[in-house]
Request: fold
Amino acid sequence: MKKYYITTPLYYVNAAPHIGHAYTTVAADVLARSKRIRGAEVHLLTGTDEHGQKIEEASKAAGKSPKEFCDENSGKFRDLWKRLDVRPDDFIRTTEPRHENRVRELFLKLKERGDAYKGLYRGWYCVPDETFFSETDAPPDEKGRRLCPNKECRKPLQQIEEESWFFKLSKYQEPLLKHYREHPGFLRPAHRAAEILRFVEGGLQDLSISRQKVKWGVPVPGDESHTIYVWFDALINYWSAAAGRDDLWPADVHIVGKEIFRFHAVIWPAMLMAADLPLPKCVFAHGWWTVDGDKMSKSKGNFVDADSVVAEFGVDAFRYFLLREMPFGNDGDYSKGALLRRFNAELVNDLSNLVYRVETMVDKYLEGKLPAKPPLDGELYTKSVAERAPEVYAKMDALDFHGALDAIWEVLRGLNTHIEHTKPFKLAKTDMARCEAVLSDIVSSLRIVGGWLDPFMPHTAAKIQMQLGVRQFPDALTAEDVLTGVSAHPGRIQKGPILFMRKM
Ligand code: MSP
Reply:
């Protein structure tokens, strides 16, 4: 059976991982978990991009062999994902034979079809971005310098004139446009898809796909003085990781940052078309984080490292903030102040205080025990909560994590208001049967919310479910489970430690 196949970009190993990398990877993990919870078979792939000029130069500067340098740094990504509770099913490195063999295979296939040919490349190259630019892409500025046209980069370009293999990208202009037209969900979000459309409509030039001066790469088969261009090499990973299996390809979604959307929305599908392989179902480009209003950069030294945030706020709050702060396709700003505000208002007040308050009441008035069957038939608040489940999951499926969390928080705020209206704390003095009914109804609602939170905050969700007795039941309760009987099981609340403590 085909698995739901999700990929992240392969991260360059020349820099230490920061919140930008964490963002994409956590989002992919949330999507994977949200599918698994509903019984889907999921495959999550991440890994590291290890060839090319940038890594060659960085390893030299570090006084290491490229291999040694990559081994060391690839491990940093792999380890960070563990600490961020990201659970990939596979981690691919572009220096592994399983990948390099597929790169050669694909190159030969394109060559056989006449889609890879030899010529002379004359133009400009950005090493940090590993991207070619033509004379017209990168005109000289007022000081006569050629700078990388990518706004996020703006580093000086290198002039290149060397023999090169080319991929006939130009041939795929029409087929690509046709594919975009016929598959409106292929490129997302829509505003970024529009940019790609304009770009492709403007005409495509053939792409240089080998370097003579770069030694650290996959040698071109049959022409070993060249190595394969690092992007041509790296993109293939999504397919090489799926090779030899019939349950993965095509990928369901490639999640990437906006700056590498073109590679994934234009070059990669054209390569697949040339190789007669099915195209991924969707490429989703999310926005970028700035930090306190500034771009993260070496010169500013303002890279936010995930571990330091996790040390202060915990891994769940970090994951929550990343996906809560802005819609997934938009840019956003990271600041400690913004994190602190959301932490105190949303995680402490709306969520943690609610759970603790409910548990305290059940503990105090009902000695921790819930009735065997939720009373209040017909007027269950839980029903209205359960009705939101399709919306919450539809948003997760659409990678609208921000929207899903918005909906969940609406429910939490609704529950807080519901407590103020029903006043179980007063009922405890006047009408114990009703107090019990109201509280068990609220507990049922929270059990559903606990399930929704699980993909975002696995620890917090586990605590909620343990405290609310869900763990006496199957792992993740669906809304239907709760409504149809599982909640009829006589549950016991275990008033637990507070989920989130207010921070200054
Ligand atoms: N190696 C290429 C990708 C090859 S995929 C076949 C690459 N690597 S990278 O290390 O530079 O990682 C880029 C990715 O990191 C972005 O696409 C994005 O997912 C993430 N981010 C890096 N900086 C970021 C921000 N400031 N904000 C959000 N995400 C960013 O490009």
Summary: The chain is about 45% helix and 15% strand.
